[in-house]
Amino acid sequence: MSSYAGSMYHGSPLLLSLLGPLTVKRIEGQPNHLLYSLVSVIADVVSAMLIRATGQNLRLAYLRSLESLDLVKQIDVSEFLCSGDIAALIYLCNPFTIVACVGLSTSPIENMAVILCLYGACSRLIPLAAFGWVIATHLSLYPAILIIPVIFLLGCGPDSPPRKLFLQRHQQKEVLNQSKLPPGFSWRPIIHFAFWAFLWSVYVLVLCGISLKQFGGLWEMFKSTYGFILTVEDLSPNIGVLWYFFAEVFEFFRNFFLIVFHVNILFMILPLAIRLRHRPCYLAFVYVAICSMLKSYPSVGDSALYLGLLGWFVNELADMQFSLFLFCGYVGVSLLSPVMHNLWIWRGTGNANFYFTTAMVYACLQIVLVVEGVSAMLNHDRKLRILITGKPQDAKS
Amino acid sequence: MAETKEKSLSDEKPKPRVRPIVRLGIFLISHSFHVSVVCCTAGVLALFLLPVLAKNTYISENALMPGSASPMLSNQHVSDGNRLVKDLTNPNSKSSETGIESHKIIAQYMLDLGAEVSFHKFHPQMNQFHPLHFFSSPDSGKIQENYSCSSYGINTVGIIRAPRGDGKEAIVLVTPYNALKSGFGEALSLGIAYSVFSLLTQVTWLAKDIIWLVADSQYGEYAAVAAWLREYQTPKFSSLSAPNAEMCPDVNNLFELKGHSISGSKFSNSFRRAGTMAAALVLKVRDQNEQFEDTISIYAEASNGQMPNLDLINVVNYLAVHRQGLRVNVEKLWSLLNSSWLKSLGEIFESLAKVAKSLYPKWKFGIPATEYVEGTATLASSLYYQALGVPTGPHGAFRDYQVDAITLEISPKFSLDKVWRNDILLRGGRLIEGVIRSVNNLLEKFHQSFFLYLLTSPSKFVSVGVYMIAFALLIAPLPMVAASLYVDANSSSKRSKGDSSTPSAITDTDEHSIAIRSWRWLNSAKLVFIVHLWGAIVSLLPYFISQIPDCSPTTSFMIWVLLSILSLLTLNSVLASPLACAKATQEKEWALVKSVTISSVFIGLGLMSVINFATAEIGALLMVPMCLLAQPLKLDVRAGTLRSFCRMICNLVLGHIAFPPAAFFLLKGMLDGFGNANVGDFWMWVESLWAWNSATYLFIGMVQLPCWVLCISILFHTC
């Protein structure tokens, strides 16, 4: 029988053939979801290790760029926190990660693919990055936009202060030491990446084609995975906002609003990419956060991912505003939302609006997080510039 | 005007313009003291205004049409009911020790009417510790091994199939009955139910099945109804418990006898079901009555302050008052009725309303002072029972399955003459008939009217939209004060650093504190988290303590207190004694701790207001002043002004009152007098809370207690 018969499964056929048997098989005397939850736990631990390695990479790159800017004296480097360790800890201890694991969702595996892609790009393992990107896109479509940060990462290396600052610094000293400048954009690794991405996607598609040969082939797969994501067919309540909207919208406007909502994500890609091009990992974080806010079937696993990635930038984001407010908001919403759901579905004394309120608050919190995070990062860059030029400039951006 | 002014201002200063909403936020935060005083006063005042703001009830669902048909219950049915009452009160029927005889009589009567009859045997469930139970649906019940034959109850269930229905919906009528020591009241309630039942077997308009449950109340009315509902809604597929009960000779005896005497009839051994329940009525008749007219009391509070749909109460109230001429009562706190301060408050409101009316004739919101006092007493009891989270009757079991149910308790003016008995049978029966007929008209579930309300009289209610205002006003200062403290603590540390260092080094020190500046609160958050963790541990401890055999409440309570203190000390030392290390690093630590505490209290209260409003309201009345006022005593002593002295006194008093056991004993003392207060009482009370799955228990353990501990730690902070 086709795995897409009915509306039980809308994921990748490869994932099903790998993990499907695990959900059925059982060890003597143990509950039968044990094996699959073990896989989720392993995936999460691997993700945390990759996050740690990437974080250390980023920290080294940051220190190196500070050194080349001669800012080491002004900024006490010993105060710097180990961002990799913090990020990994945040990812592992986050209740959202644990809940996603307990709920036997596939998001640990999707998150692992995304992190694999970023790790590969940071440590310039191009085949690994391409593999992560292809698998992440194959599993949930939205990570496709991560190709932009990956290109920047491969092209100019990991996060660093804007290139302009380096030029200014060296103009001040009037010695143009080329070796201290960060390397410019290079196309070679990107062509490599494109080649590997092509190779991996052909590989994945062929595997999918083989596994779905009798059941309508690849077209069937695209229709019930990507199509299902893009047309928002399932309107059962989740922590996102789209289900409510599309339950309310008139049928003949549906297509229009589908386009509007999906283009929403695409609209934000370009401006952010221009503004944050010197910090590709941060760009990736912002993209992941925006996706988890606007995707059609969000889950807490997505939040777990971007909150973990946020840990990479503890040093840069030390001045972030509203941190206590955001923290309390996340705690409050994550407690209130199950209660509202209970009130609506179980007790029957509430209605859909009760639950949707928490979903809206959650979306707002994510927006505030992204806005404040980006502005804190830009402020950080501005502060570095002030330290270099020695005089505060009028903030124009 | 304002816009041009703003423009000219912005022309003068080319600085980045602050948005109005941000400006408003800054204004509120900088004046947080005044704002919080105003908000809290307004919140308390609004709470006392609620009886004035109560609206008259109205029947929201058109399909109900109460009282549109004339009652069909005739004297014939009443005499049928009378016959049953006589048979039951007959001393011969009480010969059997288990009271099986009377169950047989009832079953026989039901069978004679042509109803399907079955017996349901159940074992009373032990009190179990499941504090999160309110959140999930009831399970099918644990199967216990050690059932003894001596402790089981028998519910008699009669079902009339509706001639016009499809058997998918049902209305339930429950009469608790204790066959061993039944009073005359219980027999009378059976009589009323029987007369209605006998009418309903004949009528043609019935569209929903009628289930008459005679609940065996020898182990409590609630337990019997809950056991039957559990069996009805979540059938057990394991065959473990059923044979257990069947092995008992008495029960077998019962079935055999039945089988012999009435073969081929509608009696069945298996559990019988009808459709989903549209509504349920629990009918009781009180034995003694001190009142001079026939009254009917409505009990509606189910577990965790859940209420049935208001329409159900409306229908009963309308039919009882306007058709049957019965007085309708809801529970009141009687001690409040004679309080003079409440009366004077009511008079103030009344005179205010008069003044307002003289100013503008369309403002008509005043109610007479006596009515105000009664409304407040009813509201207080409504709040109290909702806050307790313990159902006020067997109807509570239905609400757990989303069935609207109320208990009607008829208290007739007592006399033993036969005319009177017939009269009460007729009027009670007609009331029940009318309600059933109305519910029978329903096309959907009850959904039109309110689920979230407080009653101030049987015909007046305060809806969620009104009472939430009082609550929101009360807790509105919390986020504001938290924000202002947070901003204060952050800016003060910056300022002190700026002062101490030369201007050239400012940027340097800024960079130096880079890692802690914006995330300084994390340290306080850790402390708050640890205390809440401790709260969770404290809430779980009774589970283990209750396992200790032969433990008196007082010793249990003592063990609990000791273990709690021990666990607090252990947590404090294991997790690197957060208070000490925080003190070393930051000077305004207490402000941050207070800020995070207030935030957590805000979250907790907001959460609780959704789960159980009444608990949150009462908790807020206790906790909000305590949280807002908390300040290190040392600072107050050092300041030495009158204001700080007042604050110190307030802090000390609140610190004593808001401790949950202290608050409990104070309330208990106020209600019953301080004479017989016992330390074990608190344990008993807490035990009843967790046995009834009350969320209040969790609230006390995980919100109020940690908040109190944190406030105390702020009070004794050495800064």
UniProtKB/TrEMBL annotation, chain A:
One of its GO terms (cellular component) is GPI-anchor transamidase complex. This is GPI transamidase subunit PIG-U. The keyword Membrane applies. Keywords: Endoplasmic reticulum, GPI-anchor biosynthesis, Membrane, Transmembrane, Transmembrane helix. Pathway: Glycolipid biosynthesis; glycosylphosphatidylinositol-anchor biosynthesis. It comes from Gossypium raimondii (Peruvian cotton). One of its GO terms (biological process) is GPI anchor biosynthetic process. It is a multi-pass membrane protein. Belongs to the PIGU family. It comes from the Eukaryota. The chain crosses the membrane at residues 36-55, 128-154, 190-212, 224-246, 252-274, 281-300, 320-340, 352-371. Its main location: endoplasmic reticulum. It is found in: Endoplasmic reticulum membrane.
From TrEMBL, chain B:
InterPro entries: Gaa1. Keywords: Membrane, Transmembrane, Transmembrane helix. GO terms for biological process: attachment of GPI anchor to protein. It comes from the Eukaryota. The chain crosses the membrane at residues 21-50, 464-487, 527-545, 557-579, 591-612, 618-637, 649-671, 691-716. GO terms for cellular component: GPI-anchor transamidase complex. Pfam families: Gaa1. This is Glycosylphosphatidylinositol anchor attachment 1 protein.
